[in-house]
Amino acid sequence: MSANRPLHLAAEIGGPPHYDAGHYLALARLAERGALDYITLGDSFARPGLDALSVLSRVAPATDRVGLVPTVTTTHTEPFHVSSAVATLDWVSRGRAGWNVEVSTTEAEARLFGRRAAAPADALWQEAGETADVAARLWDSWEDDAEIRDVATGRFIDRDKLHYVDFEGSTFSVRGPAIVPRPPQGRPVVVIDGTAAAAREPAARHADVVHARATTPEQAAAIRDDVRRRAAAHGRDPDTLRVLVALTVDLGDAETAPEPGLESGPLLAGRGSYFRGGPVDLAELITQWHRAGAVDGFHLTPITPGRDLERIVNGTVALLQHRSLFRTFHPGGTLREHLGLARPAARYALARTAGEGA
Q1: Residues in contact with 148: Cβ distance below 8 Å, sequence separation at least 6, in sequence order
Q2: Which residue from 294, 145, 159 is spatially nearest to 215, judged by alpha carbons?
Q3: Which terminus has fewer CB within 10 Å in the chain: N or C?
Q4: Which 3 state secondary structure label does DSSP give 90?
């Protein structure tokens, strides 16, 4: 990877549960001021708290540029509803939505729904990949100009531009079409943590952004190369993937040096490798890893969001901007534009026009 390739930065705004939207809105606006590509908000059936997708739907109209990526658990949920909810977030954010695909592995979580027992990780990630696949198909099931809104004739939709998806997965089937018109981005951005072996294949096949936990630039580069190789094997252009190192950061003591190479830092389950140090130290690590061509960027999880995100934006990001390593403003309006990803064409529209031209 060229060292001149743009650096991408994202941050998690979750932490201990809060039940007021103002808390999350303040963090989102802070991240937006730092021109971060996107914020994530973690979620799980295993803990109390507000629904991440609903919270970011509230944040959306009160922000302008920053991407919004809630965690959405595909286990025990209906793929059609997931697709509709993420498409809705893209509409209310005017094209800034993504979703972080996650699975639910425990028997305790399965009992919350009472539909089926817990399943092995491989089966759950296969289902998650199928959910990402059918969501994209549902988003494509409305052509971009399917809405007519012709008052004179009373026609709202051109039915020739709505399409059945007729998808058969391992645990579900979806006929379609969607009930929400095609989102502003065409397809909202798909984010998957590809660190675990079971998640690596669906990440390579369906994700636009892959998070990966790594403790050295060499390990990060190896994961990135593996994901790109797998993506190419599925017929994808690997240059359309963005691989971001997931790092949990503790900037509580600006005088504390980071763990050397991160090797001895404690691991926080599901939260990334651990970095403890000051904002300048973090900027140095990001600079070194990116210039080495190991990563496309970093997804940072502040261990104390209210404190550490401010130090990331006003310290680390400001220094990277001063070094001309990170932008000072969002160059576009959509999350895809922030990430340098093209808006995909609707597959069924392409098939229809190809058929008409035959």
Answers
A1: 155, 156, 157, 158
A2: 294
A3: C
A4: helix
In the predicted structure, residue 1 carries a pLDDT above the cut 90: no
pLDDT, one tens digit per residue, over 296-322 is 999 999 999 999 999 999 999 999 999
C-alpha–C-alpha distance, residues 132 and 73, integer Å: 11
Collapse the DSSP code of 265 into the 3-class scheme (helix H, G, I; strand E, B; otherwise coil) and give the result.
Answer: coil
Write the DSSP assignment of 206-262 as a string of letters.
Answer: H-SEEEE--SSHHHHHHHHHHHHHHHHHTT--GGG-EEEEEEEEE-S-TTSPPPGGG
User: Per the omega criterion (within 30 degrees of 0), is the bond before 177 cis?
Assistant: yes
pLDDT tens by residue, 77-102: 999 999 999 999 999 999 999 999 99
Q: What is the mean pLDDT of residues 339-355?
A: 86
H or E element that contains 341: none
| The two three-digit tokens of residue 307, written as one number | 């404190």
Residue 183 C-alpha from the chain's centroid: 16
Does residue 190 carry a pLDDT above 50? yes
* Cβ partners under 8 Å of residue 51, min gap 6: 43
Q: According to the model, what pLDDT value does residue 158 have?
A: 87
Q: Which residues have C-beta within 8 Å of that of residue 125, sequence separation ≥ 6? A: 103, 198, 199, 201, 202
Burial of 248 (0-12, 13-18, 19+ CB in 10 A): buried
pLDDT of 356 reads 67
Number of Cβ atoms within 10 Å of the Cβ of 343: 14
Among candidate residues 339, 349, 306, 327, the one with its CA nearest the CA of residue 98: 339
Spatial CA neighbour of 246 closest among 317, 314, 194, 189 = 194
Q: If we measure between CA atoms, which residue out of 199, 196, 55, 52 comes closest to residue 132?
A: 199
251, 309, 315 from 312: Cα distances, Å: 8, 5, 5
What is the tens place of the pLDDT at every residue in 119-145?
Answer: 999 999 999 999 999 999 999 999 999
For residue 298, the cross-strand partners are 9, 245
Whether 170 has a pLDDT exceeding 90, the answer reads yes
DSSP result, 111-170: HHHTSS----HHHHHHHHHHHHHHHHHHHHTB-TT-EEEETTTTEEE-GGGB----EE-S
